[in-house]
Predict the 3D structure of the following.
Amino acid sequence: MAEKKILDVCCGGRMFRFDKSHPLCHFMDMRSLPKWSISSRPDFHIDPDEIWDFRDIKADDKSYKIVVMDPPHLQKLWDNSWMAKKYGRLPKTWKEDLQKWFTECMRVLDDYGILIFKRNEHEIPLAKLMKLFPQKPMIWHRTGKNNKTIWLIYLKPPT
Ligand SMILES: C[S@@+](CC[C@H](N)C(=O)[O-])C[C@H]1O[C@@H](n2cnc3c(N)ncnc32)[C@H](O)[C@@H]1O
């Protein structure tokens, strides 16, 4: 079992973190990015504990109590744009990828663990997204500009 009980699956630059090096949090992302990669934001960098892909998380079953997920929200971005560098970009395979991600998160969550999923509806409507997953969230809440940011909370049923 992991010592760190919270997995941040797409940690990016840890911008929404209060404590960017919380001792219980395990930070993963599929890439790292050095400072000065974005000239207008020279301090921005990505430095995960693990370079892991959320379609194949290299952790044992039931390792974490909380899993946090904030994947890229947009497909329509230039590779070299600052937004693509900062937030990543959704690939064409996003539906299959997010289905694999959901299965992986439920696998690495302990019984009754919590999955916190942040989405933005700018390109993909929530209803379309929710059809991809075998279970419904316990709680959801809209916020942000035009109410397009949605926080979804799922419970891992005991297995
Ligand atoms: C919207 S950003 C996350 C921002 C982060 N929550 C923060 O507080 O700064 C999305 C991140 O997901 C990462 N990502 C995209 N596909 C991934 C995958 N298959 N596995 C792991 N990370 C992935 C990107 O590299 C990017 O850093």
Q: What stands out?
A: The helical segments are 82-87, 94-108, 126-130.
